[in-house]
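Amino acid chain
________________
===
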Amino acid sequence: MYLVEERRKLILEEIISAGTVYVSDLAKKYEVTYETIRKDLTNLEKKGLLVKSHGGATLRQGAIEHTFQVREKENSSFKQAIARKALEYIPPNSSMIIGTGSSNYELANLLCMKSGFKIFTDSLPVASVLIESDNQVFLFGGELRKKSSSVFGGWAVSMINDISVDLCFIGTDGFSKMGGPSTPSSSDAFLDRTIIARSEKKYILGDYTKFQRSSLFKICDWSEITALITNEIADKEGIAEVSTFTTVITC
């Protein structure tokens, strides 16, 4: 028999993994009544973690920020395709900022085999890959942020404001009904806005699933972005909508 908080923690872990849970399944699994499970789901809903539906519940979009290590494994082949397409838009010997995110990490893996670039980043995984390359690599300083494996804060912002680069690549947690790319973290959003302001060309890397997702904090409007690079299997209506504000490049 599980304690209340222990059961609710396990239910939350299950809904994070599956996306949707059902009262009947949970009641059977934890050997409690339907009413007990409904109370558990109500408690988690009040915390903003899920949305109750008929007979079950679904994870609230943007409620949980997965770590970089988790996101890295999601839709990896589609992110690799986006990275290959992004590489086509990088002029020789150019300067750039590569932000946080798993698609940007895939781009860093490709740039590791190139040379002659000046690359700035706030991402520890990106820096760790590029340290082996024949490029000039700069890691912004600041407080470490575990969820995104990156740096943030006034020190990082100050360093970004001291440079001006040819282009930047920014990740996103989604942009459904947001009017622009979004992120779960206010500190990441602020840093990304600063990066965008210091870059001549600005690219958002977002796989096809980002058309159905959104997060808490909008980074910027689509009109501020040079292009969104995504997969050709992305939602056609979503592509058409974003295309009214900026260029959409598919791969």
The chain has two domains: 4-59, 68-250. The first helix runs from residue 4 to 18. The longest strand covers residues 115-121. The CA atoms of residues 227 and 247 lie 5 Å apart.
